[in-house]
Structure formats: structure tokens, C-alpha cells
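User: Please predict the structure of the protein below. I'd like the answer in C-alpha cell form so I can feed it into my own downstream comparison script.

Assistant: Understood. Taking the following sequence of 427 residues as input:
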Amino acid sequence: MAPTQKKIVVTLGFCGLVSAADNWFVSPALPAIAQTLAIAPAAATIILTAYLTPYGLLQPVCGAIGDAVGRVRLLCIIVAGLAVSTVLCAAAPTLEALVVARIVTGCFAAGIISVNQSLVGSVVSEEDRQGAVGLLMGVTFTGQGLSAGLGGLICDLVGWRAAFICFGALGAAAWLGVRRLRYLDEMDGVGTVDAPDTDVNAAGVGTVDAPGAGVSAADAGAVSSAERESFRPAAFLRHAAQIFFGPGRAVYIVAFTTGIIFLGVYGFTGTFLAERCGLSSTQAGLLMMFYGLACLTGGSISGRIGETRGQRGVIAVGETSGVIATALLAASTITGSWVPALPAAACLGLGYILVQPTLVSFSMDIDPSHTGLCTGLIGLGVFAGGGIGSSLGSVAIAGGGYLALWTIAGVALVAQAIAGARFLPRK
């Protein structure tokens, strides 16, 4: 990628980092939240579901709206809403109020991942797409791991309410970064573009200055008048259903099961480390930071794995890493030691970051004229699946404890790998 393209990817990645961090710092903080609000730690997991469910359900909606009104314009709105609503979570006096605040936060954050993925897919060449999306998601989900450590540390030092305020401030910083990309939405052929690293041709259409990969304004996040007029709720629902249940449905089914398994397992890791291994919020958070470091590493190498093994091979490596993670977590459960959980966190992060962005790359080829909607449907599958995974995980723990949860997740990953090898597209 050219420097301008990398700048765009990193800026958008930071926005995604904030949205992921905003939810997942809560995982190691659940015991502290439960104690403050006088509820059981297992009951507090509804806070994760409250965020993840709208976060997943609204992703295709936000992706389609971004296609119609301008992706950067929409990002400015939803990132600002994310920052404000996160701060409001700090003032919640009861579990019910906190759940409502997290639902609102999830609604604002819903479009960040899908719009970012669509925008990145537009400003890089098809050959660079796997690596660019991998880098974007690696930066994004680095926040998922690092926020666990920072969130746990802040919770132990000054309390979970202060942690919400701190992550709200990060949201404000992300909003300032997005505002610097507004020129991408202005590159619509209507007027001139006054933005660094852009050229304007005789027709007034800007092109991102990237050697060997010139990108037209319409592809770089801007939208035409026809696209603005094309967004209608009924047409959106019909088109979304055609994509989701069409020839590419295997991609979305795998996205759904990925969310249930990977995010479901991750959501309980912080509570597991506190209850079974006796770690504090800070200790559990620091251990879970290895998830984020593995995400960053996996995102940077996914393109190279794809070059040698193909996209199916990238997913297979990720699923294998996930199975190893569940085995290590089972060992930690049996021994009561946190030591196996450390490489488990890294394997879980590596597995997730190899699977999810690859599914995004698959989806962009399903309907190239509506990449926002296609990538948003991946988000719907993954994050709605994550919300369902949190609920199913509670049932598994109640029925057989953490060992039952890790065993079920491992078996499900093996089944997903077998199904994916047969039904996913060959590229």
C-alpha cells in the first residue's frame, strides 16, 4: 500500500479499535460491576449482550446508509455518538440503566466496522485487499485485547465508572481523526477537492494518490446522486435478504458461527480468570492483552498466509488456532492455573483475526456495487452471533461449568472447519 492508503487504513483502524475496546474492556470489569450493582457475575454478562446485539443487527443497515449518504459523513456521526454514550454509561445507577446505556452505545457503534471495511476495500487494489483488511481488523481488535488490560487496571485503581469515561475520551479522539478524512466524501465529482494527497482531474473528480492503484472518488467512500436516491427501507431489506441467502450464504453462516464461538469464548475469559484462577481485574486484563497483540500480529501476516495457502487456508489456520485455545483453556480449568490461559488468549486472538477479515474479503466479491451492505452483513453474523454466544455460554456454564463451555466451543470449531472447507468459495 502507498503511504496515503496506509494513513487511511490506520485512521479507520483506530476508530475500530475504540469501538472494540468500548465493549471488551467490560469483560475483566464484570466482577467489579457486579459487586457495585449487587448482582451475580454471571448475570452481569447481559451487559456484553446489550452491546453486541445491536452492534451486530445494525451493521448492514449502517453499511447500506454509508453507501447511500457518504461513509465518512456517517462515521463522524456514529463515532461522536459512541463517545458521548460511553461517558453516559459511567453514570448508570442500576443494572437496568447500564443495559439501556450499552444498547444505545452499541447502536451508535454498529456501523464503524462495516463502513470502515467498505471504505478500505475501496481505496486499495484487489490484490492488496486481504492485507489491508487484515491490517484494519488487526488494529481494530488490538483494542479488544489491550482494552482488557487497561480497563482492568483502571477498574482496580479508580473504578469501572472511570474506565467508561476514559474510553469515551478515546472515542472523542477517534472522531477528530475521522474529521480529517472528510475529503473522501467530498470527492463526488461535484466540485473541487482541497485535500492533501489527492489529485483533481478535469471533471473535478479526485483520485487518491497511490502509485499503481488510483482510486476514483466514487470508490473512495463518496457517493453519487443516484446512490443517494437508491436507499429505501423496503429495497434494502429485499437486497439484504438476496445477498445473505444467495450464492454467498456459506460466508455469512460461517461468520455467524465465528461470532458465537470466538466472541462467546472471549466474553467469558475475564470472568473465568477471576473465578477459577483467582486473578484480579488488572491481572486478568493484562493476560488478555495477549489477545490484542496476537490480533495485531495476525492482521499483519494474514495477507502473506493468503498468498501461500489461499483464503480458505487462512481461515483453516485461524480455526486450528481457535481449537488450540479451547484446549489450553480446558487445561487451565482442570489445573486451576492461569499459565495455560496466557497462550490460549494469544491463540484465540490469532484465530479470530485470521477468520473474520478473510470472510469480509470474501463478501466484497458477492456484490461489488454494495460493499457496505455486504460487509455489514458479515458484522451482523459475527457480532449478533457474539451476543447469542454470550447467552449460550451462560447456559453451558450453568449446566457443566467452564470445562463444558470450552469443550463445546472446540467441537463447534472443528465442525465449522469441516463445513467451511467444503462450502466456502475457492479463491
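That's the full C-alpha cell string. The two ends are 21 Å apart (CA to CA).
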